[in-house]
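Follow-up to my post from last week.
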Amino acid sequence: MDGISFPFWLVVLVICFVLGLIILNHFLPMFLKHGLAPRGTFGWPLLGETLWFLNPHSSNSVGNFLLQHCSRYGKVFKSHLFFSPTIVSCDPELNYFILQNEGKLFQCSYPKPIHGILGQLSMLVAVGETHKRLRNAALSLVSITKSKPEFLHDIERIAIQILDSWKDKPQVIFCEEARKFTFNVIVKQVLGLTPEQPETTKILRDFLTFMRGLVSLPLYIPGTPYARAVKARSRISSTVKAIIEDRRRRRNNNNAEERNNSDFLEILMSVDTLSEDEKVSFVLDSLLGGYETTSVLMAMVVHFLGQSPTALQQLEIEHQKIRSMKQKNEKLNWEDYQRMDFTQNVINEALRYGNVVKFVHRKALKDVKFRDYLIPSGWKVLPVFTAVHLDPSLHANALQFHPWRWESQDQTCKKFTPFGGGSRCCPGSELAKVEVAFFLHHLVHNFRWRNEEEDQPVAYPYVEFPKGLVLNVEFCPDDVEKKHH
Ligand code: HEM
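User reply:
Got it. Predicted complex:
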C-alpha cells in the first residue's frame, strides 16, 4: 500500500508544481508591469481570453469581446491571447506607430504552428534581412508585371470565362466562383499556368489541404489536417520546382516563345538574390496572400451592392460609360481601370466595412512607451483594423455601407489600413483591386443577381460566408444599356 501511495503523492506533487508554474507564468507578467501596462484582464491560465477573442461575429461588426473590453478599459487594453500576455490596440495612432516601427520596436510574430506550415522562408513569417530581400523581389516583380497589358488581359479573360459558365445557370455559389477566379488569376500570373493544365488542378488540390491546415489544431500526428498541410506544402514545393526546372530547360533550348515570355516566373528565375527554396516560398506566399483574401473581397462587394441599389446603379452607369468608349469585345486597359472612380470607392468601402483582415500579429522587441502606458518587451501586440474601420468617432455612419464617403476621404490615412502598413504593407493590394474591378465590369454588364437566402460575412477571425453566398443570377447582357440610356 505504502509502495503505491508514495509515487501517487509524488505525481500529485509534480502536477501541483507544474500547475503552479503555469499559473505563475500566466499571472506574473501582470504583476511585474502592474500599473504601467494598460488596464485589462488575463482570463484563464494558459488559454487566457483567447476563446472569447476568437468568438465568431459578423465581420462588419466589432464583436462582443472588443465591444465589452473597449467600453471597460478603453481602446488599448491588456489581455492574454494565443498563450502570451498581449496588448490589444483599437487605436489608429497606436496601430500606425506599431506598423511603422516594424523591425525596430515591434516585429511580425505569427503563432509558431503557422511557421511549421509556411516554412521559415515565407515572407509572412521571415524577419530582418531575409524579409527585406524577399520583399524587395516581390515589389519589383509586382511593379514590372502590373503595367503589362498581358497581365490585365489574363485577368479579364479569366473573368469572362467564369461568367460565361453562368449563362445557363439559374444559381451560383458565388464564393466558389470567386475562389476559382482568384486562384486561376494568381496561378496564371505567377506560374504561367492555365486552368486546363493538369498542374493547376494538382496545385489547387494540395493548396486547399494546405489552407485547411493553417486554421486547424497544430498537432503533428499523421492524418491530422495540420500534418496533411505540412505534407501538401512539400508536394506544392516539388511541383513548383519541376515547373521552374521545365521552364529553364526550355529556355536553354532556345525556345523563342519562352524567351519572349515575360511572366512573373520568367522574371523570378532571373532574380539572383533569391535561392531556389526562396523562389518556391515566394510562389506559395503569392498563392496564400492572393487567393482567399481577394475572393472574400469580391464576395463582400457583391453582397453589399445587393443591399445598396443606388450604389449598384451608379456602378452600372460608370461601367456602361467605359464600355461605350470601346469597340465591341475590345479589352480593358490600365487607363480604363483608372477611370473606374466609383468602383474604387465601392472596393474601398467593402474593405472598410467588411474587414477582410481583422488584425495582424506583432510582438514588442523592447519596452515601448506610448502615451501614458507601457507595452512590455516580449508581449504580443495586436493592432485590430476592424475596430478602427468601424469606429463611429472616426468614420461618420461607420456601420453603414456608404461608398460615397470615399469621394472626399483620403484612402491613405491612419484610420483605413485594410492592407496593413509600414514595411509589411501588402504587396498585392493593387492586383487585388484590379481583379475585383475587372470582374465587376463584366458582371454588372451581363448579369442581374439576387441573394437566394440571408448570408453574411463572418469573422472566425478569417472571414467566410457560411452559406457561400448563393446568388440567383440572370443573364441579360444589354439590360444596363437600355436602363441607363
Ligand atoms: C483583398 C485582398 C487582400 C488583402 C485584404 C490583403 C491584406 C494583407 C495584409 C493586412 C497584410 C499585412 C500582414 C501583416 O502586416 O502581418 C498583407 C501582406 C501580404 N500580402 Fe496581402 N492582401 C490581399 C491581397 C493580396 C494579394 C493579391 C497578394 C499576392 C499576389 C498578397 C500577398 C501578400 C504578401 C506576400 C504579404 C506579406 C508582405 C510582407 O510581410 O512583407 N496579398 N496582405
